[in-house]
Every structure is written in C-alpha cells, then in structure tokens.
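User: I'm writing a short report section on ligand binding and want a predicted complex to refer to. Could you take this sequence and zinc ion and write out the structure as tokens? A short remark afterwards would be nice.
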Amino acid sequence: MKKPTREERQRMCTRKRRYRTQGDALDAALLAGVSRRREAYLCPICRHWHLTSR
Ligand SMILES: [Zn+2]
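Assistant: Sure. The structure tokens for the complex follow:
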C-alpha cells in the first residue's frame, strides 16, 4: 500500500473523530442515527477507529 499523502491523511484521519474501540465508533453512529450508513474502520495512521462518511 502506498503512503497516503498529507491530504489523504486529513481526509481519512485528521478531520475525523477518533474512537478508542470499534464499539465506541458504532455506538456513536447509532446515537447519530446513521449506523446503517456508516461503518467503522481501524485507521492505519492513528490506530484508532473512525466512521466511514458514505
Ligand atoms: Zn486516524
């Protein structure tokens, strides 16, 4: 896998909220009412979890 550019890093990591666990991320999606449209992924950059923004 190629190294993400600074901009890609911002898009997939820096600008997003971080969660300590997958459960935390999914709970947050649930609370926001978007759990069906979001998935949690383990970020290779910060090693925390983020939600996809689809
Ligand atoms: Zn991250």
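A remark for your report: The chain has two helices and two strands. The pocket of zinc ion is lined by residues 13, 43, 45-46, 48, 50 (CB under 6 Å).
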